[in-house]
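Exam revision sheet. Question 4 asks you to relate a sequence to its structure. Input first:
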Amino acid sequence: MAWPSPISWPRCAARSRSASLLSSSLLAQSTNLDLTIRHVLAGLGHGIHAGVERGAGVEFSEYRAYTPGDEWRRVDWKLLARADRYYVREAERDSHVAVWLVLDATASMMEPSRSIEGLDKIGYARAVLACIGAIAQRQGDAFGLVVLCDGRAQCTPAARGPRQLHRILAQLRKAQPTGQLPDAAALRAALHFTRSPSLVFAASDFLDWPSPLSEALLRLRHMRHDVRALLLQTQAEVDADFTRGAAYRDPEAGDHVHGFDPAMQSAYIAARDTHFGAVQAHSRQHDVPMLAARIERAPGEVLRALLRQAGRR
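Answer key, structure tokens:
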């Protein structure tokens, strides 16, 4: 299913009628993902997953007797002075899983907001995935990126550390919405990380469903990976509030041009509700939580909702 994409419409001035609009306006005005990350993550205060391992960490858990092979830096020397025995401090830390970011960069993701100038689906998706990558880097997880555009799947292998975050941000900046999704064979080859446990965040408008992307996400879930989907829409798509009399075309399916009149609006609303109702039902059936969000919504709110989903399993 494809939404109409405008050939032309009047440029809209950015409006800040609410905190959400203001936050998304700031996002639209910034092409610097590093600044966006700092702005969105300010005050976030928690990580991606809540699994716990014993070992060298931050939050103290308990003492245990020293055994050969323990690191001397973990010995509590003050307790040694009192008890005349060696004890090691145990702590809790988040368990490490691989975090994968999947970006739909097909042509339909160029769809812009009608109320915030400079804001579009691809820019919003970049910002949210960049923030998830920054959180993964902060908590020591390996993380990688898969960009889907122009019939190809471009993969940045998972790794840890600040340099990996710089690599991911560079690839996100380069991603330009064009073409269609890769076919099922290309996606299967790209998603080679299925051999190890992963937490997968996929950002798309999911206008095509079923599709090679939806099939890949469901397959990953069936292989016991934790899969989370972010469904992006514009406020105009939600309200069916498109310019009357303007010409529109499907950016991924050729040159067919049509107008948007009251009759088309009714058909659009019916088709939209049917399509996304089926998408949400199918994702629930296969235990793939899907968060629907307007790109005009504050990205920090959307990120918190995604992380709450990821922390439930």
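Marking note for examiners. Residues 1-19, 51-59 have pLDDT under 50 and may be disordered.
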